[in-house]
Amino acid sequence: MKDIQEVFNEIQELKQTKKEIGREYRDILAQDEDYQELKEEVTTVRDKKKTREQSAQSGMGRRWEEFERATAEITELEQMLTDIAMTNLMDGKSISLKDKYDTEYEPSYKITYKKIA
Fold first, then answer.
1. Rounded-to-5 percentages of helix, strand, coil across the chain
2. Residue, of 50 and 106, whose pLDDT is higher
3. Is the dihedral of CA 6, 7, 8, 9 positive or negative?
4. 93: buried, middle or exposed (CB in 10 Å: 19+, 13-18, 0-12)?
5. In terms of Cα–Cα distance, which of 87, 81, 113 is closest to 4?
6. At how many degrees (to 10) do helices 33-60 and 62-90 cross?
7. How far apart are CA 4 and CA 20, in angstroms?
């Protein structure tokens, strides 16, 4: 089995390769006139779509405001759920959740790395 530093170095090299290929790809597309025209059409259609969405949202009035409040509250509660789960894990407690249909849920973990400034 490779050690953690070897795997990290391999990931870094692949990311660099991917970055270079992506740059080449964007350069090729930038030189394609048909692509540039399509890009402008997409922008126009996207703007039109956004205008329609905003019109529908303002037409819904208080109901749309309720939707936005619910979305914000879900985000806060999900963060709270994560914090509670981490605290319970650190205290050695097990974590299990059930929804109203008795479907069980277990935590899923993901470790990510960030640069140290």
1. 70, 5, 25
2. 50
3. positive
4. exposed
5. 113
6. 100
7. 25
CA distance 51 to 57: 10
Q: Are 44 and 37 in contact (CB under 8 A)?
A: no
| HSE value, Cβ hemisphere, 13 Å, CA-based, for 104 | 3
pTM: 0.68
- 86 vs 27, residue with greater confidence: 27
φ/ψ of residue 105, rounded to 5: -125, 140
- Alpha-carbon span 20 to 53, nearest angstrom: 37
pLDDT above 70 covers what percent of the chain?
100
Mean pLDDT of 15-32: 98
Question: Does 77 score more than 90 pLDDT?
Answer: yes
